[in-house]
């Protein structure tokens, strides 16, 4: 007979020997990591939003004061409007162009793999780098677009891409679309390739035109993937910061200020940590709405349920 | 219903020619099976008939129309795919009525056509289900139902039973044959399984390496294979092949390489001294006789006994109706029916027996 181990041993013994104990041990590193790098910053951000902290000065709890103040701030509401406009227009364009590209790349093209690889380039290049390139393309004097159009005789003076509020909005959206298309196109291409070729052939035999094959077969079968891809795309676009910060810093007259850039602007250069945090926290309801949308969009449809293949 | 004619049809993928001139005539209402090993071009031929593959050269005629340039939907054919190709996002009823829906038929018209087809196939209680919720055999039936609703000139089947288990395959086999006898629509059926071909076809087209080896009725192919390939492909267990030649001065006697003598009733155009292959069906070997076999394996199937034995170093499969008590190593005396011996030219593989 073995003697019962002492109490201090038994906790270690339990940890090492029971399934739950061992599971807990294995989870510990990940849990610590998540707590330190996700939960703490998020919690700190939310907390700062309820304080009047500034850089170099610890804040005191002020309740909803920051939010009440923001509620009357036209610049904040302008940034909300900008963010919505930016997200909606860019996402629609990315979806339409991305789907179109995916459909083309799904055909038998010469150099197919080459084109597929090239499509990924905008996604691979660091955002700051491509933003700098766009900064030159949109330059008010040296813009290559203006140069070409002027040489063609279509315009008489350079286009003020980033100086005019409307043009600036269109310009940053165009840059964002350029950067976001690869993600949408490649993901949808992967989705397209899960649709068996024989379904299209069967539909062709059943008398479907290519447009009917697209609307009645391809699109419905692609919806689950579209829901995932577009949710991610919307989240990325809504929280975009780098492009705007490099191209316009929110100008002209705040016309391109997104919530993310405004939050940074107020918190770091402006020093009002509390207010910046409040703006960032104000993004959460919008993001939650997007996630909920995807949650319902991602629910298995009736035809996806039931026996496996 | 329509006739189908292939006239010297060729297909090349890039530089590689996979069909080297296929010519076959299919009569109205016939059930024709294209059979051959994988890669023989049978599926390609079917897909060319369906319009899913371009025809490199030659002509395909359905009814009295050359269809080479017609897109699939204008050929008036329906096809059942190997993986059924059911549209997963719509119900069984919508699957079956899909072609009518595309034509813009009214709901009641679609219903009026789908229901009888569902009744023929016993699918009535499944009409509201989605394909995912069906078993393999049910999906198979829905795929056929979708074809029936179209009421096409020609039915095409591309290995429709290969995804089913063995038992279901046998019952679906007779179901498809039954359906054909009922609808009498011209049918082209592709399979690699010679038993499916034998049991279902009015006419079998045996293909191999992109050419047609033989066209004929099932029993014709079985009784008089035109060459060594057909002889070896049709029939299960496969025909026994023994090399040798006819004895000099003794036209009715085949001598194997090892000197074993086998009487041949019908030597046809075979000449003494010519290198030959002697084909013997397993069931042409009978118990009792003067040929000595060395037993290697005995496989009782219940109704028959299969014996794998050795004849002068050549493996020989025999099928006996009798139940025999023999073990490995035993000697078995058998006779070989001289009438049932096929002689083939060892060089070209052509049949020489009349």
Describe this structure in words.
The complex is a heterodimer of chains A (309) and B (354). With 309 residues, chain A is mostly helical. Chain A has one domain (65-299): MetI-like fold. Chain A contains 14 helices and no strands. Chain A is flat and about 70 Å long. The mean pLDDT of chain A is 86. In chain B, 24% of the residues lie in helices and 35% in strands. Chain B has a six-stranded mixed β-sheet with strand order 6-7-8-3-9-10, with helices on both faces. Chain B has a five-stranded antiparallel β-sheet with strand order 13-12-11-14-19. A four-stranded antiparallel β-sheet of chain B has the order 2-1-4-5, with helices on one face. In chain B, strand 12 and strand 13 (261-263) form a beta hairpin. The model of chain B has no long low-confidence stretch (mean pLDDT 90). The relative contact order of chain B is 0.12. By secondary structure, chain B is of the alpha+beta class. The longest helix of chain B has 18 residues, at 166-183. Chain B has helices at residues 42-50, 92-96, 98-102, 107-121, 136-150, 166-183, 194-200, 218-223, 228-233, and strands at residues 4-13, 16-26, 31-35, 57-62, 65-66, 77-80, 154-158, 186-191, 203-208, 211-216, 240-247, 250-256, 261-263, 276-280, 285-300, 305-311, 314-320, 331-336, 341-345. Chain B folds into two domains: 4-233, 3-Layer(aba) Sandwich (Rossmann fold), CATH 3.40.50; 240-345, Beta Barrel (OB fold (Dihydrolipoamide Acetyltransferase, E2P)).
Fold blueprint:
The complex is a heterodimer of chains A (309) and B (354).
Chain A: H1 7-17, H2 19-49, H3 65-71, H4 74-105, H5 112-119, H6 121-124, H7 127-137, H8 144-151, H9 165-193, H10 197-205, H11 210-238, H12 242-247, H13 259-267, H14 273-298
Chain B: E1 4-13, E2 16-26, E3 31-35, H1 42-50, E4 57-62, E5 65-66, E6 77-80, H2 92-96, H3 98-102, H4 107-121, H5 136-150, E7 154-158, H6 166-183, E8 186-191, H7 194-200, E9 203-208, E10 211-216, H8 218-223, H9 228-233, E11 240-247, E12 250-256, E13 261-263, E14 276-280, E15 285-300, E16 305-311, E17 314-320, E18 331-336, E19 341-345
Parallel strand pairs in B: 3-8, 3-9, 6-7, 7-8
Antiparallel strand pairs in B: 1-2, 1-4, 4-5, 9-10, 11-12, 11-14, 12-13, 14-19, 15-16, 15-18, 16-17
């Amino acid at each position: 007979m073995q003697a019962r181990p002492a109490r201090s041993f038994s906790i270690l013994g339990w940890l090492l020997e029971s399934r739950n104990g061992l599971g807990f041990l294995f989870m510990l590193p990940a849990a610590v990591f998540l707590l330190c790098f996700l939960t703490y910053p998020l919690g700190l951000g939310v907390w700062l939003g309820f304080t009047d902290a500034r850089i170099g000065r610890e804040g005191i709890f002020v309740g909803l004061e920051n939010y009440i103040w923001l509620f009357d701030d036209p610049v904040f509401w302008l940034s909300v409007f900008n963010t919505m406009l930016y997200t909606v227009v860019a996402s629609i364009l990315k979806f339409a162009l991305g789907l179109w590209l995916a459909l083309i790349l799904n055909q038998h093209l010469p150099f197919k793999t080459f084109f597929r690889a090239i499509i990924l380039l905008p996604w691979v290049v660091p955002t700051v780098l491509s933003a700098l390139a766009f900064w030159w393309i949109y330059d008010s004097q040296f813009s290559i677009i203006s140069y070409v159009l002027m040489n063609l005789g279509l315009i008489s003076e350079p286009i003020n891409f980033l100086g005019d509020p409307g043009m600036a909005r269109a310009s940053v959206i165009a840059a964002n679309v350029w950067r976001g298309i690869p993600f949408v196109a490649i993901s949808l291409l992967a989705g397209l390739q899960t649709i068996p070729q024989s379904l299209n052939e069967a539909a062709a035999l059943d008398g479907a035109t290519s447009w009917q094959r697209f609307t009645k077969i391809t699109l419905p079968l692609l919806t689950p993937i579209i829901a995932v891809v577009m949710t991610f795309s919307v989240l990325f676009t809504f929280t975009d910061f780098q492009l705007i910060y490099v191209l316009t810093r929110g100008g002209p007259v705040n016309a391109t200020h997104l919530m993310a850039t405004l939050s940074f602007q107020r918190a770091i250069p402006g020093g009002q940590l509390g207010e910046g945090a409040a703006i960032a926290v104000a993004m959460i309801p919008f993001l939650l709405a997007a996630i909920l949308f995807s949650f319902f969009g991602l629910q298995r449809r009736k035809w996806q349920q039931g026996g496996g293949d | 219903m329509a006739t189908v004619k292939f006239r010297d049809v060729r297909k090349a993928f890039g530089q590689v020619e996979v069909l080297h001139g296929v010519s076959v005539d299919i009569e109205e209402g016939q059930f024709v099976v294209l059979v051959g090993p994988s890669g023989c071009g049978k599926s390609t031929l079917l897909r060319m008939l369906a319009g899913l593959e371009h025809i490199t050269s030659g002509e395909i005629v359905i009814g009295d129309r050359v269809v080479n340039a017609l897109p699939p939907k204008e050929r008036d054919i329906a096809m059942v795919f190997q993986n059924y190709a059911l549209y997963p996002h719509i119900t069984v009823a919508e699957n079956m009525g899909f072609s009518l829906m595309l034509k813009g038929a009214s709901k009641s018209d679609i219903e009026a056509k789908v229901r009888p087809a569902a009744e023929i196939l016993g699918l009535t209680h499944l009409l509201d289900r989605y394909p995912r919720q069906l078993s393999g055999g049910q999906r198979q039936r829905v795929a056929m139902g979708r074809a029936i609703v179209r009421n096409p000139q020609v039915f095409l089947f591309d290995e429709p039973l290969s995804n089913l288990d063995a038992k279901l395959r046998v019952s679906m086999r007779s179901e498809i044959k039954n359906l054909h006898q009922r609808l009498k629509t011209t049918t082209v059926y592709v399979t690699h399984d010679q038993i499916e071909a034998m049991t279902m076809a009015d006419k079998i087209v045996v293909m191999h390496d992109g050419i047609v080896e033989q066209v004929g009725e099932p029993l014709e192919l079985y009784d008089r294979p035109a060459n060594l390939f057909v002889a070896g492909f049709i029939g299960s267990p496969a025909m026994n092949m023994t090399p040798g030649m006819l004895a000099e001065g003794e036209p009715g006697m085949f001598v194997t390489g090892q000197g074993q003598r086998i009487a041949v009733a019908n030597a046809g155009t075979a000449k003494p001294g010519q290198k030959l292959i002697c084909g013997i069906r397993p069931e042409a070997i009978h118990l009792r006789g003067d040929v000595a076999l060395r037993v290697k394996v005995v496989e009782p199937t219940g109704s028959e006994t299969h014996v794998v034995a050795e004849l002068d170093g050549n493996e020989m499969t025999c099928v006996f109706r009798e139940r025999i008590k023999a073990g490995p190593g035993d000697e078995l005396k058998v006779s070989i029916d001289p009438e049932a011996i096929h002689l083939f030219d060892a060089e070209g593989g052509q049949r020489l027996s009349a």
